[in-house]
Design brief:
There is one protein chain. By secondary structure, the protein is an alpha+beta fold. The protein is built from 23 helices and 10 strands. A hairpin with a 3-residue loop joins strand 1 and strand 2. Helix 20 (about 420-435) packs parallel to helix 21 (about 440-455).
Length: about 500
């Protein structure tokens, strides 16, 4: 009871903040609302601080005012232009997660509590905050051995505050889902659960350290890529110490040009690195925006900030790859089949009709570069198709979708004329060949043979047990001459044995 009242109080506070920014019932959309809501919106706009901003800009300002959990909500909302519209999604996508830093002495206190020693005993230099986000802030420091490092520290009491806000989000999502059939298709409850799970990982910096380490191991052979080393002795639940990377922000185009960096090649590399993570390992950096990519002194692409990571199982990776490859090769029938086989589309719909709809989306993209394609129109058409065929949100793909949109934006920044399909083709084709090509089939055959050979020595025992059971059944239930049951049971034994071997092989394959 108390928690429910607390949740509603938080939601009311959020509602009040949204009305002060004219972001609850924005004036631009008020005419579309029923009369009571229109009147309510007009009332809430009295004294609102709009300052001629667009609705998305006002909503972003309100979320920044409300705090960390709302900033994360806004960032995730930006991945769903099918729900909120493209202009609003674009404005929310600019939430840079820049927050006022907390006190320097508090930061030092957190380090002493987390690492067991004062700052002066651990570092020869320790800067004031160089970046402050919704969940943590970062400082530059120098180790006793002379290495430069970045020290990330969680905001005081952030775990409790975030937990309370996400609980309120969940309550609101349940009400929204219960009230609207359209909302149910968008799975707001699962959306909030995905957001909450992602934030939970960010609230334990040991997990972020593990993510950086795993990603570095997965991509150690990837040319032109760098992942910073974790300083494990100086990492704890609320403190992360990681190698400092000196370089140019990927968004500083003038600096990249002055250094002679090939931006077209870099744009293709960004796409390839993302696809390599998502497809080949199933573990990917899910926050690849401009601020989290640096070009180091040797011209390598460096990824930083591993608080938001995504995972795809083998089946999801294969489905994702086949969908992309289907568009690349214009095999829309196979692309449709993949959606049905994965359960994304119900069998009550026509595969042929869905393939036709996919063709209408894919054909206008063939042979055209990014500058020639209005992605907002393409995405809107794709969302219309998923609505028509009742395709529900797949929670496991939310982070993938979010990252794809972000990566595309970075690639367009670097090379406005990039051909996304052409850039993606080598990595996707390589995965397809490895996952379902001749090599993959040969590996499956080897696995099947091994499993069959493991089962084979046990078959005589199985046959004997089955034979005894068959004789017992024949003795009690079959009235026949004395020798007949033995003959029938022998036939049954071999039929069952062959069936068992066949099942073993089928399972292996």
């Amino acid at each position: 009871m108390f928690s429910a009242l607390s949740d509603y109080a938080r939601l009311l506070r959020a509602g009040w903040t949204l009305t002060r920014h004219d972001a609850l019932v924005p004036r631009e959309y008020a005419h579309l609302a029923p009369a009571p809501i229109k009147a309510f919106g007009a009332l809430t706009r009295i004294g609102a601080r709009t300052k001629d901003k667009r609705p998305g800009e006002r909503l972003a300002s309100a979320f920044e005012k409300l705090g960390p959990a709302y900033v994360k909500l806004g960032q995730f909302m930006a991945t769903r232009p099918d729900i909120i519209g493209f202009e609003l999604a674009d404005d929310l996508g600019r939430l840079q997660d820049k927050m006022p830093p907390f006190d320097q002495e508090l930061a030092k206190r957190e380090i002493k509590t987390g690492l067991g020693q004062p700052v002066d005993d651990l570092f020869t230099e320790f800067s004031t905050p160089i970046a402050a986000a919704s969940i943590a802030q970062a400082h530059k420091a120098k180790l006793k051995d002379g290495r430069d490092v970045a020290v990330k520290i969680l905001r005081p009491d952030i775990e409790r505050k975030a937990g309370q806000e996400f609980r309120a989000f969940g309550r609101a999502a349940r009400h929204i889902e219960a009230a609207s059939k359209t909302a149910r298709r968008m799975e707001p409850v699962k959306f909030i659960e995905t957001l909450k799970a992602s934030a939970a990982i960010e609230l334990d910096l040991r997990l972020e350290a593990g993510a950086a380490s795993e990603l570095a191991e997965n991509l150690k052979n990837e040319p032109g890529l760098r992942i910073p080393d974790v300083i494990w002795p100086l990492t704890a639940r609320r403190v992360l110490t990681i190698e400092w990377i000196e370089g140019s922000p990927i968004s500083d185009l003038k600096n990249l040009d002055a250094r002679g960096i090939d931006r077209k090649l870099l744009a293709s590399r960004v796409i390839a690195v993302f696809l390599k993570q998502a497809l080949h390992t199933g573990f990917f950096h899910a926050d690849m925006h401009q601020g989290n990519m640096i070009i180091d002194q040797e011209g390598r692409l460096a990824l930083i900030d591993f608080g938001i990571m995504g995972r795809l199982d083998k089946q999801a990776r294969q489905t994702f790859a086949e969908i992309i490859y289907g568009f690349i090769t214009r095999d829309y029938k196979r692309t449709a089949d993949v959606h049905f086989e994965a359960g994304y589309i119900s069998n009550k719909h026509s595969r042929e009709a869905f393939a036709q709809a996919l063709r209408a989306v894919g054909e206008p993209l063939q042979g055209r570069n990014a500058a020639q394609v209005d992605m907002s129109r393409v995405l809107q058409q794709l969302f219309d198709v998923t609505d028509l065929f009742d395709m529900h949100l797949r929670p496991e793909l939310v982070l993938l979708q979010r990252t794809m949109v972000t990566v595309e934006g970075v690639a367009r920044l670097l090379d406005p004329e990039i051909d996304m399909w052409k850039a993606a083709t080598p990595t996707v084709r390589d995965y397809i060949n490895n996952a379902i090509g001749p090599g993959a089939q040969a590996e499956k055959l080897r696995d099947a043979t091994r499993k069959a050979l493991e089962i084979a020595p046990r078959l005589p025992g199985y046959v004997e047990e089955i034979g005894k059971a068959a004789e017992e059944i024949a003795h009690h239930r079959v009235m026949a001459p004395p020798q007949q049951p033995q003959k029938n049971s022998n036939i049954l034994i071999w039929l069952v044995a062959l069936t068992a071997l066949g099942l073993a092989l089928s399972v292996a394959f």
